[in-house]
Write a structure and sequence with these properties.
Layout: H1 2-8, H2 21-37, H3 46-53, H4 56-66, H5 72-86, H6 95-106, H7 117-133, H8 144-150, H9 156-179, H10 193-211, H11 217-231, H12 236-244, H13 248-261, H14 269-274, H15 287-293, H16 297-316, H17 319-343, H18 347-363, H19 367-378, H20 394-402, H21 408-421, H22 427-438, E1 455-456, E2 459-460, H23 470-473, H24 484-487, H25 507-515, H26 533-551, H27 576-586, H28 593-608, H29 612-619, H30 632-647, H31 653-664, H32 677-708
Antiparallel strand pairs: 1-2
Helix pairs in contact: 2-5, 4-5, 4-6, 5-7, 7-11, 10-11, 10-12, 11-16, 12-17, 13-16, 13-17, 16-17, 17-18, 17-19, 18-21, 19-22, 21-28, 25-32, 26-32, 28-32, 31-32
Length: 710
């Protein structure tokens, strides 16, 4: 009937939809599908034999290429797509199928916003799905002329090598065809799958790259899906061809850069942080509604959506391709575009770019992209820091300095960035920021036991013995101190010294040391219901379990490095990051409440890490520090000493402290301004932080005890 139409009709300008051709094509598909359903699996029926023997697909390709009548190309693409999708028996091995399919592939993607774009992308996707399902089928798509026509190979040597390999394999194909009288050809022998798939990617990926530029969002999503399928092919040479012989890396990075540059120069960090989760391909939006919510929401979602696609593409890609793409994102986006934004001096610009970087860190999940992002932010250095090398990496140095910026907003946002960063499953982050400074345990006093000061109650005579100090012990509130029978049923029996036989300080002494740090007159939580220590225990247990899940595949010893293997003579430097955090912690009584919350949030995350050196340095108050060294505990002790001097100069300190706590909890309405508000809020944060540290120490001890028990 279709043939008769062309014989009998002289009007070739009437659209195909005005003819019976679409319905006849649908009937052909129905007949072929029904025929296959009525026969045994793998058996070819007479109608399918007719289609193959009489080269019906070749004829349809010719009509589609001519697009006569207008719209015929669209109909042919749809017919091919449905045929490949609905027929279960393998069709692509047939010479009269794969040849017209080859030719039809060449007609796709040439014109952006073409009326056949949707049909083109559907056709390309089904072809790639079939090739992914049976990679050997790619052999039938080896055609030198097409490879050289479509592929944009920049390396001429690679081009010549590809031509020689393909020519050699085609000669084998022709010999096989001459020996065979059947239409269904088996794959020729001695054809390397890697070469086959390389040719496929060379053919297919430029078409997809073109279609990702379509103004039709649905076409873009389909093209992106096709690229996702191609990068996941398992052969290394396929990955190499994809990253070296196509413009895929340029497409990813150029679009990421253009979306980033379309963002407003100034955005509210809260808008950036709270905008809804973005998944590529599910980007549904309303321009008027987005603009009404906040300026820049639409370009922000577009940027985050493309970032998500890059991240997912790298996650799905072959390892070598993932590495190349991630490095391209680092060089062409992070270094070229983001670094100048982060290094600028404008406070508004710093705040916006830091908030965007924080959102990027939160969103990235692929291992390769995360690694490159971390190297960009922190550098690749592994050796311990020294005061002379803190500025070795300018961006790392600037970001850490921003944690102590004159602008509280910048400080808070940068601290949030680092809090987000240390929770990512990447070992280099923690090594770069803290662990490399603690590797040799040279924060400990390096003296032979006989040369050390005589111990009094298990401690040096000049150590801060909190349990003997009446300032911390007298009239303690009921819930400020732990009872061994209530909380520490599994803890070891008390010994005269502060340390157990295995060298670990008894946990209840550590816990009580933190709980007793803040003197009773500076405490207010026991007067407010629901603010007890037990709330921190639950949170610490959950967070520690999560951190253990992240860190379990890393080579972290369960015990500290033996002293005899440590270089205790090397001068200790806490590292730039801990230095800034400790400096901030030392000013907790004089800086804003929100800053204090963020500083303690970062420090508590570090304390939760299951690394023996970090645990010893941060959570054991009874270690003997080397001269001139400080630890988190010693910093807090100095803060408490300063607090005790200042309390006596503030009239009605305790009632004011309780009122401020109730206001912070929303239990009291805002009223008259209270003097010394910053200090009072700092005292409240300090008390809560000490309870949190006590809970973390307790949870970590019992986790270690449980894992070591039979």
């Amino acid at each position: 009937a279709i043939t008769h139409y062309y014989i009998e009709t002289s009007d070739d300008k009437a659209p195909v939809t005005d003819t019976n051709i679409p319905s006849h094509l649908e009937q052909m598909l129905d007949i072929l599908t029904q025929e296959e359903g009525e026969r045994d699996s793998g058996e070819t029926g007479p109608c399918m034999e007719y289609l193959l023997h009489h080269k019906i697909l070749e004829t349809l390709y010719t009509l589609g290429k001519a697009d006569c009548p207008p719209g015929m190309k669209q109909q042919v693409l749809t017919f091919y797509t449905k045929l490949l999708a609905h027929i279960r028996q393998p069709l692509l091995p047939h010479i009269n199928v794969h040849r017209p399919v080859q030719k039809l592939v060449r007609l796709c993607g040439d014109v952006l916003a073409a009326p056949t774009e949707n049909e083109e992308i559907q056709f390309l996707c089904i072809v790639c799905a079939k090739l992914k399902q049976d990679p050997y089928l790619v052999n039938f798509f080896l055609e030198v002329e097409k490879v050289l026509l479509i592929c944009d190979i920049t390396c001429r040597t690679s081009q010549r090598d590809l031509r020689q390999r393909v020519l050699k394999e085609q000669r084998g194909n022709r010999l096989a065809a001459q020996r065979s009288h059947r239409l269904l050809l088996p794959p020729p022998p001695l054809v390397r799958p890697a070469t086959i798939i390389t040719a496929t990617i060379t053919i297919s990926s430029p078409l997809y790259l073109n279609l990702t530029k379509s103004p039709d969002g649905r076409i873009v999503v389909k093209a992106c899906e096709g690229l996702m399928l191609l990068v996941s092919l398992p052969e290394p040479s396929a990955a190499k061809c994809l990253t070296e012989n196509t413009e895929l890396c340029e497409l990813l990075t150029d679009r990421l850069v253009s979306f980033y540059k379309a963002l407003p120069q100034s955005m509210d960090p809260l808008d950036i942080e709270t905008v809804e989760s973005v998944n590529w391909g599910l980007d549904v939006y309303n321009l008027k509604e987005d603009a009404a919510i906040f300026t820049g929401k639409r370009p922000l979602i577009s940027f985050l959506s493309w970032l998500d696609y890059c991240d997912q593409l790298i996650k799905e890609a072959h390892k070598s391709a993932a590495t190349v793409m991630a490095k391209a994102v680092r060089e062409r986006f992070f270094v070229s575009v983001m670094e100048p934004q982060l290094m600028q001096t404008s406070e508004v610009g710093i705040l916006t770019s830091t908030a965007l970087l924080n959102r990027i860190i939160r969103q990235v999940t692929s291992e390769a992209l995360m690694q490159e992002m971390v190297y960009f932010l922190l550098g690749e250095e592994r050796e311990p820091e020294t005061p002379a090398t803190v500025a070795q990496n300018p961006l790392r140095h600037r970001l850490i300095e921003h944690c102590d910026h004159l602008s509280d907003e910048i400080s808070i946002m940068t601290l949030r960035l680092f809090e987000q960063l240390i929770q990512k499953p990447n070992q280099h982050i923690l090594h770069s920021l803290v662990l490399r400074s603690l590797e040799e345990r040279n924060y400990l006093e390096n003296k032979p036991q006989e040369e050390r000061e005589p111990l009094e109650n298990g401690q040096p005579h000049d150590a801060v013995d909190l349990e003997e100090d009446p300032l911390f012990v007298d009239d303690l509130s009921p819930d400020s101190r732990l009872s061994g029978s209530d909380w520490l049923g599994s803890s070891p029996r008390q010994s005269p010294d502060h340390t157990k036989s295995d060298g670990k300080t008894e946990v209840h002494k550590i816990v009580n040391s933190f709980l007793c740090l803040v003197p009773d007159e500076a405490k207010s939580s026991y007067q407010v219901e629901g603010t007890g220590y037990d709330t921190y225990l639950r949170d610490a247990h959950r967070q520690f379990r999560d951190f253990c899940g992240v860190c379990q595949r890393w080579d972290w010893r369960g015990h500290p490095k033996p002293f005899e293997k440590c270089n205790l003579d090397a001068p200790f430097f806490e590292g730039h990051f801990l230095k800034v955090l400790f400096d901030r912690m030392g000013r907790i009584l004089d800086q804003p409440y929100d800053v204090n919350l963020q500083v303690t949030a970062v420090l508590s995350k570090l304390c939760l890490l299951p690394h023996p050196h970090l645990h010893e340095y941060q959570l054991d108050p009874y270690i003997s520090l080397a001269p001139g060294c400080r630890s988190l505990f010693s910093v807090i002790v100095r803060v408490v000493g300063d607090l005790m001097l200042r309390i006596h100069h503030i009239p009605d300190f305790t009632p004011k402290l309780l009122l401020v706590r109730k206001r912070l909890l929303g239990l009291e309405p805002e009223g008259i301004t209270i003097d010394h508000m910053t200090l009072l809020e700092g005292v409240i944060v300090l008390e809560e932080f000490c309870k949190e540290l006590a809970a973390i120490a307790f949870v970590k001890y019992h986790a270690a005890a449980a894992s070591s028990s039979p």
